[in-house]
Amino acid sequence: MKKLRFAIIGCGRISYKHVEALINNKEEAILVATCDVDKEKAESKASEYIKGMNTPVNVGIYVDYKEMLEKEDIDVVAIATESGYHPEITIHCMNKGKHAIVEKPMALSIEDADAMIKCARENNVKLCISHQNRFNEPIQKLREAVDSGRFGRLINGTARILWNRNMGYYTQAPWRGTWELDGGTLMNQCIHNIDLLQWMMGGEIDTVYAQCDTFLRDIEAEDFGAIIIRFKNGSIGIIEGTACVYPKNLEETLSIFGETGTVSIGGLAVNKIENWRFADGKDSEEEILKEQGEDPDSVYGFGHTALYKDVLDAINNDRQPLINGEAGKIGMSIILAAYKSRLTGMPVKFPLENFSTMDMVNVDKLHK
Ligand SMILES: NC(=O)c1ccc[n+]([C@@H]2O[C@H](COP(=O)([O-])OP(=O)(O)OC[C@H]3O[C@@H](n4cnc5c(N)ncnc54)[C@H](O)[C@@H]3O)[C@@H](O)[C@H]2O)c1
User: Residue 298 class from Cβ within 10 Å (0-12 exposed, 13-18 middle, 19+ buried)?
Assistant: First the structure.
């Protein structure tokens, strides 16, 4: 089988996970170009890949992604720039016939997310959003338990993201915490667990209510958010997300409660089963807890490698990737609805239409 040819656009903090995923999928994928407006970053990303491959490979270096697309033979682009730039870059690449893996959040407005989904469809290319924790083994196992009805009636689910992002994190890259390019801790950090929660609870949302504020960090958007989701199946989701935990990350936990089952998964990046209790007695909690794999060494977890594998398989077999544009849109829509709820003080009914983080620019003025 011909190896698919990849390029990475945006060679910052998370891009090493894309390099790692390409190296781990080297039988089916090859990196042919890197691009960053900062040339040194593009160069160092290419070197990282070449070193990891341990064999001579040619990787083109670019500062302009449009030029890169003209000059290189590329099948798939991985887009890991600041979130606010995702839609424009992704749409340009898909219009050139490239498949796209886009970092989360896919976009910062409903309009942009819809345009990306439409563009992928029109160009018959795959669009995948990096919610890599869906591929964590315990999460896949939990999803199987939900699908096979082991929980009985779903009652509630809780996503807790109790982390610390200090001012150094925000000053290191000034786009972070801005309404134009990022959003707050809900949109940047909590979106992974919010995506998992909605995936387990059935994905169809009735209303979203939120209270958010900026307590400690000198940023535009929130550093704390509490959200309540009512799902169409009647179950309730509760989210507690913060960047303010003193003095360091405390936990990221997803808990699902049903009539006949209770599961909670924690660890650094929702990789560790903490409780696994079902009325059907099909497996023992003790055994499940004993059999677990290792915890990752970073909050980014292990999922990018499996996500790349899924995209490669989706392209080779012409099917949708697990986290396509429609799937990626749900988590960001919940957060946009939470922002709208913060603005109006009211629950927000789904579907949410035409809302953007930019609608939040004057939030402070409104409340003062
Ligand atoms: N999946 C995850 O777990 C995870 C973790 C961290 C960040 N992210 C997401 O990844 C994205 C990047 O985050 P980061 O922390 O790596 O940011 P970063 O600021 O470290 O890196 C972004 C890079 O993109 C480059 N860039 C900007 N415009 C460009 C353009 N037009 N062409 C080429 N390069 C361009 C910048 O120069 C910078 O090097 C964000 O959307 C973020 O939300 C995802």
Answer: exposed
Question: What CA–CA distance (Å, rounded) separates 247 from 243?
Answer: 10
Q: What is the pTM of this model?
A: 0.97
Query: Which residues, listed in sequence order, are joined to residue 262 by a DSSP beta bridge?
Result: 257, 277
Stated length of the chain: 368
- Nearest atom in ligand 1 to the alpha carbon of residue 173 is 19
38: which 2 tokens? 């900062």
Model confidence over 248-290: pLDDT tens digits? 999 899 999 999 999 999 987 799 999 999 999 999 999 999 9
List strand residue ranges (DSSP E) for the chain, in order.
Answer: 4-9, 29-35, 60-62, 76-79, 99-103, 127-130, 154-162, 205-213, 224-231, 236-242, 251-258, 261-266, 272-278, 348-349
What are the tokens at 225? 């958010």
Burial (CB count within 10 angstroms: exposed 0-12, middle 13-18, buried 19+), residue 230: middle
Q: From the CB of 241, is ligand 1 less than 6 Å away?
A: no
| Pick from 146, 133, 163: nearest CA to 328 | 133
Determine the distance separating the centroid of ligand 1 and the alpha carbon of 10, expressed in angstroms: 5
Q: Could you tell me if the CB of 300 is within 6 A of ligand 1?
A: yes
